[in-house]
Write a structure and sequence with these properties.
Blueprint lengths: L4 E7 L3 E8 L2 E9 L2 H4 L9 H14 L9 E4 L11 E3 L2 H9 L10 H13 L2 E5 L27 H16 L7 E7 L3 E7 L2 E4 L20 H10 L4 H9 L3 H6 L4 H9 L3 H24 L6 E6 L5 H11 L5 E5 L3 H13 L6 E2 L12
Parallel strand pairs: 1-4, 4-6, 5-12, 7-10, 10-11
Antiparallel strand pairs: 1-2, 2-3, 5-6, 7-8, 8-9
Organism: Petralouisia muris
EC number: 2.7.2.7
Keywords: Kinase, Transferase
Amino acid sequence: MKQYKVLAVNPGSTSTKIALFQGEKCVFTKNVSHDAAELSKYQTIPDQLPYRRDMILELLKEAGISLEEVDVFVGRGGGLLAMEGGTYGVSELMLKHARTCANGVIHPAALGSQLANEFAVKYGKQAMVVNPPDVDELQDLARMTGIQGVNRIIHLHALNLKETAIRHSKNVLKKAYENCNYVVCHIGGGISVSAHRQGRMVDGYDIVGGEGPMAPTRCGSVSAADLLEYMGKNHLDAAEMKKLCTRTGGFVSHVGISDAVELTQRVKKGDKYAEMLWNSMIYQIEKCIGAMAAVLHGKVDGILLGGGMVHSDDLVRQITESCSFLAPVTAYPGEFEMEAMAAGAVRVLNGEERLKEYTGKPVWSGFSW
């Protein structure tokens, strides 16, 4: 079987990760940091494209890497409308939606498909995205809320969640992802908890909207009535309240930091406030895991933990003690995002998976009645 060469590109708020794969093996990787002052020169996210592209090309040139032999370029999806999971070919419609952040989420991840396309056009190769953040495979029961006309959506770390489940299925259970049920968590700067049934992510939380457990910069699920009261008492408008829920909540709201390592160091020094905050976050993750296990009717093959905070032995221990009665708990510290992008492309090139077309139409547009 051919060992395809894949270049994966993952743009973040202050950096761009790149990785070159030969088959499943990563042969080069680099996290390119971007100076905040330099990024501030650009009024919009799309304006950053030439700057990031040229920096990547210069870095690869310095490393002696030629892109002419790359078979496919894969970018982090972003800015797209809801779609089912899978690997998608970059199209003009996808690029249009990425440039305008059609989903309303303004994030540099929207540059992923655009950067992949830039390289693909230059070298006459394919461009793809794999399991973008807007993957929506919710079952219908997960969509309705108690307000008519307001239905649930999700924004999760779909790329890492699905890749963790795919790898665990193949390497541990020796089964196909499509034949397994999991509760999969990504526990990092953002926290995603999701239910996977037979290869589909049938429920989870809208972490961009504030659902789910508390995270370093997000408030997590809070009573709507309490939020409205807080908003009134503190004379906050809707934009300020949204910022509190999604960027300055969680650890930041309580103790002014977003670094989990620093928080746990405070715990070790006897800081009781930090200890309660840390344990409360873990407690909320455990509650969400239990909820997702109920979604799967208790038929859970494993509880999988990924993300940067999973490097914490204390976090893994607490979740294992609390949730292992549901299913075995397995920790995968860090994330597989770069590997996931390459693996999705290789599955398509090997004929193991169908390359999907981005339609620009949300996978769900309402109930039939």
